[in-house]
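Problem statement: downstream parser choked on a complex file, so we are re-checking the raw output for the histidyl-adenosine monophosphate run. The parser issue turned out to be on our end (a line-ending mismatch), but while we're here, posting the original submission so the record is complete.
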Amino acid sequence: MINIPKGTKDMLPGDAPKWQYVEKTARDVAEIYGFKEIRTPVFEHTELFSRGVGDTTDIVNKEMYTFLDKGDRSVTLKPEGTAGAVRMFVENRGEFSSLPLKAYYLTPAFRYERPQAGRLREFHQFGLEMFGSDRPVADAEVIIAADTFLKRLGIEGAKLEINSIGCRECRARYHEALKSYFRPHLDEMCELCRERFEKNPLRILDCKNEECKKVAENAPEITDYLCDDCAAHFEGVKSLLRKEGINFTVNPRIVRGLDYYTRTVFEFVSDDIGAQGTVCGGGRYDYLISEIGGGNVPAIGFAAGIERLLLLMGNRGAKFPEGAVPEIYVGATDEKSNEEAFSLVAALRRANIYAEGDLMGRSVKAQLKYADKIGAKYVVILGERELSCGTAMVRCMKESKEESVKISNLEKYIKEARS
Ligand code: HAM
């Protein structure tokens, strides 16, 4: 047997209602906040991610699914949704005359990570991106949309943590402070962090290596280095969140695992799903669009991992809507009646009724058992007698009651039973 690749998961039919519920909630929330759906390719030119996500990140260094296609081009399966959304924005810039552009996506993403609960190699993200506004209201709107989404799913326990990692100016001063701090500890740190020390010392704060984590514990905090504009922006965001009653804590340790962030960064974190506690993360990325060649357009967004949300909801005993069950099962006593049953099922479906019939040649007893198993609300069995007189006994499974109904009236009968 050929097994499923490590770190990937099938969605089984029984899981579908849960996925559809989360996806529908995502779409509903995106809609009321004015975000429109986009779909971008599953693979992009590798350069988009190495430039966009950043070549000092774990994602670009260790986790990308990169390969040469048959034309010898290096392509990569998207490790996240933002870079593709930005490429789409830049490439179609002429179509978006009035900003902000608000886009959302539901997409698979791929990272070659060590799989564990809540961490997969193929996972799915729901994300929002807003292009064009540099104002604190944009940050607040995106954060509140994420909060609304989680609350609608019944995830009240995820804590919002926010931080500001400043702009180029304050970051340069902060990098110097970090370098002075880390320089005496370089020997204790991993090889990648020694590289990061030169290229992007902020990344050291995100290293998973225990030694590096220990050294980083007492590192200077970015909030002490923000320039006046960044500090005012951060105050503006916090004040809007407070005004809207959104609980948050400032965590100066949040730097996020991607290089494109500026100013506001945030994560919703839960204690209920083990080590992979971040269900949703995002932030502002004011330079990314210009780095991809699209001019000076500020942006902000977030993404939530659907598998992690489902895990969290499962652990918290969340109630999911039931999947659809047949409104009626039309069985038959013999081959000829089954042909009539087949036509009746087809007609009921044309009338938008979820109907099922026998496709397996089961005995009447086995058909009744099967109808019960799949949760059919009503069951009718057609035989020679029923077909010749044009009426049949329809059984309501919930109330264990039977009623004689004209076969030509079944559609009306089922539709009336709905209300
Ligand atoms: P991220 O924090 O890398 O941000 O991922 C966002 C979310 O995707 C995480 O909070 C987590 O729920 C989920 N996730 C990430 N990696 C995995 C994995 N290996 N297995 C399962 N779930 C995972 C981004 O991707 C940014 N693009 C978010 C963003 C959008 N920032 C601005 N706009």
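For whoever reads this later: DSSP finds 15 helices and 16 strands in the chain.
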